[in-house]
Design brief:
There is one protein chain. The protein is of the alpha+beta class. It has a domain of 66 residues: Winged helix-like DNA-binding domain superfamily/Winged helix DNA-binding domain (Arc Repressor Mutant, subunit A, Orthogonal Bundle). The protein has three helices and seven strands, in the order ββββαβααββ. The protein has a four-stranded antiparallel β-sheet with strand order 1-2-3-4, with no helix packed on it. A three-stranded antiparallel β-sheet has the order 5-7-6. Strand 6 and strand 7 form a beta hairpin. Helix 1 crosses helix 3. The longest helix is centred in the C-terminal third of the chain and has 15 residues.
């Protein structure tokens, strides 16, 4: 999976669990990697928290907003704050511009 804009070159290698951003590689833990892949599958689309939780954890039981927030926070620290935007009260989206 690859995307490129004037500001960001972004590539996901699903076989090696590596994410490349502007020629830097990042090895992410499994859930963080799966979350990046989900958001990357439709850049710009707002993924609702429940949608993310059902997709990544295959359940609605014991869902807390903090679970997703913690993963998003860790991804932002690695890939940059600007990559993932919070849509308050709804969810998250990947921004590549």
């Amino acid at each position: 999976m690859m995307a490129s804009t004037e500001k960001v070159n972004f590539y996901i290698d699903k076989e090696s669990y590596l994410v490349y951003k502007n020629n830097n590689s990042y090895m992410l833990p499994k859930k963080e990697f799966e979350l990046v892949c989900l958001l990357f599958s439709k850049p710009g689309k707002v993924f609702r928290r429940l949608e993310i939780y059902k997709e990544l954890w295959n359940t609605e039981d014991n869902m807390t907003d903090r679970t997703i927030d913690v993963h998003i926070s860790r991804i932002r620290k690695k890939l940059g704050e600007e990559m993932i935007r919070t849509v308050i009260g709804i969810g998250y989206k990947l921004v590549l511009d």
